[in-house]
Specification:
The complex is a heterodimer of chains A (336) and B (320). In chain A, 32% of the residues lie in helices and 25% in strands. Chain A is α/β, with parallel strands linked by helices. Chain B has 320 residues and is an all-alpha fold. Helices cover 70% and strands 2% of the residues of chain B. The chains are: A alpha/beta (336), B mainly alpha (320).
C-alpha cells in the first residue's frame, strides 16, 4: 500500500512503524513506539504533544542524529523520495542532511558555535554540499540573511553569535537551514525559546519562505496556537505513539482522542469565564522505562476501561482523513 | 509654542541611530587583550621574554657562531673582563657568545618540543574525547601508562638510548648536534599525556553542545566537527598549557643536559653550559651564574605569561 502511494510522487516522506529506544543504565527507554506518518510535497504538518512524548526523538531518528549507543532505532522505514533513510550509509546520510532535509533547533542561543562568526556558520552547508568558493558563499549568505529579514547583512556576516539577539539568531538559523533549498524543513520547537512577538515573526517568515520554495515543513511544537496558524495537518503524540491525526480544522473542532480533547480543553480561551481555572490533565505522563502495554494514556483517561490496559488500540479511521487510536468512541460514548 | 521643542526632540531621536550609541562590539581577541594587559606580571613576562629572544637572536649580529666555539686555552676560566663581559669557560670560550647561541638552542628546543607535545596531545585527546568507547579506553590506558612512569627516568633512558645513533645535521648553514633532535623528540613524547587529558576533558564537554548537533544536522563531516567546531572551543586551555610547556621543556632540557645526557658539545645550550660549571661552583661563579640566570628568567617569564593567558582567556572572568 505504501509503495503505491510513494510511487505517485505525492508523498515526499513516508515513515512506517518507527521504534526508537535508548539503552541506559536504568533500563530501556521506549521513546518512540511504532510511529507511522507521511508528509506530502509542499505540505506543512504540525506535531504536538507534551514534553518528552517523543516528538523530537522521532525527527532525530529520521535524521539519524540519535547517538548510538545508547540510542537504537529498533524497527521502521523512513522513505524520503525513493530511499529509506534508515538504511542509508553514514556518508550518504551526511550528504543528505542540510541539503535535502534541514533542521531548525529549539534554542537559538545554544545552536550556534560561539567561537565562529555567523557568516562562517551560515556558509557551512554551502561549502559542504554545493562546494561554493569564498566569494560565492559570501554572496549567497548575504542573500539568505536578506531573505530572513536581517538588516545590513554584509556587515552582520562577520559578527559572532553573541552579537545577535535571540530572534535574529533564530532567523540566522533558519537562513542556515534554507541555504541549500531543502525539500523538507524540520522545525523542532523553533519558537519556544522566543518571546511572543518574535514568535509571530518567525512563523510568518517560515510561512512565506515555504510558499516561495515549495518546501514541506514538519513543525514540532507544544503550542497549539502556532499549529493552528501554520499547519495543514496535525499529528498528536503521546508517550511515543501517534494517537490522533487530522486536518487542522477537524482536529480543533472535533477531537476524537481523549488526550487531544484534554489538551484542547487545557488551552486558555478569551471567551472562558474569568472565575474558572485553566483545566489541566490529571496525573503525569507514563514512565518510558516500562515497555508499553495497552494504551499509555489509560491512567489519566476518564473514559478508560479494562480493555485499554491490555491492548494498544490500532489506528482507526474515525472520519475522512481523520484517524485516532482509542478503544472508546467519544462521539457515541461507547467502546468500539 | 510647543511645536519647536517637539521638533528638536524628534530630530534628536532620529539622529541617535543605534550604531552610534553602542560602543563597537569587541571580538574575542580584543576582549582577551583587554584582560591580559591588566595582568601586570604577565606584561612583565612578555617584555622579559621579548628581551631574552632579542638577546639570543639579535646577538647573532655581534658574535658569530665561530666566536662561541672558539677555544683559547690560554684564556681559560677568566673572570668577567671588558673583553669577555661574562668571562670564559674551562677551555677559554666566551660565555657571552655561548649564552647567545645556547639561548637559541634552548628556545628552539622549548618551542619545538611544545609543538611535538601539541601534535600528540591534541590528536590523542581529541580522538579519545570525541569518539569515546573502546578507542577512548585504549588511548587513555596508554596515556596513563606514560603518566605513571616518572618523566625524568623516561627522559634519561630515552635520551641515552637514542643519542648514540644520530649524526650531526646541517640547517640554515649551521651544524647542530643530532642530540638536539633527540632531546626535542624525547621531551615532546614524554610530556603529551597531561595535554591529552585536558583536551579529552574539553572535547567531552564541548561535544554535548547543541551547536555540535546543529552542525551535524547541516551535514558537516566528522573531521570538520572535530577540527573546525570543537577544537576552536578548546583553544584557551590548549594555549595556556602549550605556553607553560615551553618553560617546562626548557628546564627539562637544562636538567638532562646538566646530567650529561642532553645536547652534546660543541652545540651550546644553557643546560649543557651548566654541566661544565658543576666542578667550578666555588671557584668560577660566572660559569653557572649566566646560563642559570637565563634559564630561571625565561622559565619565570613564560610562567607569568601563561598565568596571564589563563586569566585572560577564561570566558568566566568577564571583568575587563
Amino acid at each position: 500500500m505504501d509503495s503505491i502511494n510513494r510511487q505517485d510522487g505525492k508523498r515526499i516522506l513516508d515513515v512506517t512503524d518507527l521504534r526508537t529506544r535508548f539503552h541506559i543504565a536504568e533500563g530501556t527507554v521506549y521513546a518512540v513506539n511504532g510511529v507511522s506518518f507521511h508528509l506530502n510535497r509542499g505540505e506543512t504538518i504540525g506535531v504536538v504533544g507534551e514534553s518528552g512524548c517523543g516528538k523530537s526523538v522521532t525527527m532525530m531518528s529520521i535524521m539519524r542524529l540519535i547517538p548510538s549507543p545508547p540510542g537504537e532505532i529498533a524497527t521502521g522505514q523512513a522513505y524520503f523520495e525513493e530511499r529509506d533513510l534508515l538504511q542509508l550509509s553514514d556518508s550518504e546520510m551526511q550528504d543528505l542532511r542540510g541539503k535535502d532535509i534541514a533542521m531548525v533547533f529549539q534554542d537559538p542561543m545554544t545552536a550556534f558555535n560561539p567561537v565562529l562568526t555567523i557568516g562562517r556558520q551560515l556558509t557551512e552547508p554551502l561549502r559542504v554540499h554545493l562546494g561554493l568558493n569564498k566569494d560565492e558563499c559570501r554572496h549567497r549568505a548575504i542573500e539568505l540573511l536578506e531573505q530572513v529579514g536581517i538588516p545590513d547583512p554584509s556587515h552582520r556576516l562577520g559578527d559572532y553569535p553573541h552579537q545577535f539577539s535571540g530572534g535574529m539568531r533564530q532567523r540566522a538559523m533558519i537562513a542556515m537551514a534554507l541555504a541549500c533549498s531543502p525539500s523538507i524543513l524540520i522545525a523542532d520547537e523553533p519558537t519556544t525559546a522566543l518571546d511572543v512577538t518574535i514568535q509571530a515573526q518567525i512563523v510568518e517568515l517560515v510561512l512565506g519562505i515555504r510558499a516561495d520554495l515549495n518546501m514541506s515543513v514538519i513543525w514540532i511544537t507544544h503550542d497549539l496556537g502556532v499549529v493552528a496558524e501554520i499547519a495543514e495537518r496535525v499529528l498528536v503524540m503521546y508517550s511515543g505513539f501517534i494517537v490522533e491525526e487530522a486536518p487542522v480544522d477537524d482536529l480543533y473542532e472535533d477531537p476524537r482522542h481523549p488526550y487531544t480533547q484534554a489538551l484542547l480543553a487545557a488551552l486558555p480561551r478569551v471567551d472562558r469565564r474569568r472565575d474558572r481555572h485553566l483545566q489541566s490533565i490529571p496525573g503525569a505522563p507514563p514512565n518510558l522505562l516500562v515497555a508499553p502495554l495497552g494504551c499509555p494514556f489509560t491512567p489519566r483517561c476518564k473514559f478508560a476501561f479494562d480493555h485499554c490496559r491490555k491492548e494498544m488500540p490500532p489506528i482507526i479511521n474515525v472520519a475522512t482523513n481523520h484517524t485516532a487510536a482509542c478503544w472508546w468512541d467519544v462521539t457515541t460514548g461507547k467502546p468500539r | 509654542m510647543t511645536a519647536p521643542p517637539l521638533d528638536q526632540s524628534t530630530s534628536a531621536v532620529v539622529n541617535l541611530i543605534p550604531d552610534e550609541l553602542e560602543t563597537p562590539p569587541l571580538s574575542l581577541s580584543q576582549l582577551t587583550w583587554r584582560r591580559f594587559r591588566r595582568h601586570k606580571m604577565a606584561i612583565f613576562g612578555v617584555v622579559t621574554l621579548i628581551l631574552i629572544i632579542m638577546y639570543a637572536f639579535g646577538g647573532m649580529l655581534f658574535f658569530s657562531e665561530a666566536d662561541s666555539n672558539h677555544t683559547d686555552t690560554g684564556n681559560a676560566l677568566q673572570a668577567p673582563t671588558r673583553e669577555h663581559p661574562f668571562g670564559t669557560d674551562t677551555v677559554g670560550r666566551d660565555i657571552l657568545a655561548r649564552t647567545i647561541y645556547g639561548g637559541q638552542i634552548s628556545i628552539l628546543i622549548g618551542i619545538t618540543a611544545m609543538v611535538v607535545e601539541l601534535i600528540f596531545g591534541v590528536s590523542i585527546g581529541a580522538v579519545s574525547g570525541y569518539f569515546g568507547g573502546l578507542l577512548d579506553s585504549f588511548l587513555m590506558r596508554i596515556t596513563e601508562a606514560v603518566l605513571v612512569i616518572p618523566q625524568i627516568f623516561l627522559l634519561l633512558v630515552m635520551a641515552r638510548y637514542f643519542s648514540q645513533s644520530i649524526p650531526n645535521i646541517k640547517l640554515f648553514g649551521r651544524t647542530f648536534s643530532g642530540s638536539v633532535l633527540v632531546i626535542i623528540f624525547v621531551i615532546g613524547i614524554t610530556s603529551w599525556p597531561y595535554l591529552a587529558r585536558i583536551v579529552r576533558a574539553q572535547f567531552l564537554s564541548v561535544k554535548e553542545n547543541d551547536f555540535i548537533l546543529a552542525a551535524r544536522a547541516t551535514g558537516t563531516s566528522t573531521r570538520d566537527i572535530i577540527f573546525r567546531h570543537i577544537l576552536p572551543n578548546t583553544s584557551a586551555p590548549i594555549i595556556v598549557s602549550a605556553t607553560l610547556s615551553v618553560a617546562a621543556a626548557i628546564s627539562l632540557e637544562a636538567y638532562i643536559s646538566f646530567l650529561g645526557l642532553g645536547v652534546r658539545p660543541p652545540t651550546a645550550t644553557w643546560g649543557n653550559m651548566l654541566e661544565l660549571a658543576y666542578k667550578y661552583i666555588n671557584t668560577a661563579w660566572w660559569l653557572w651564574f649566566f646560563p642559570g640566570f637565563f634559564i630561571a628568567l625565561i622559565v619565570l617569564s613564560i610562567n607569568f605569561l601563561g598565568d596571564g593567558l589563563r586569566d585572560a582567556l577564561d570566558p568566566h572572568s568577564r571583568a575587563a
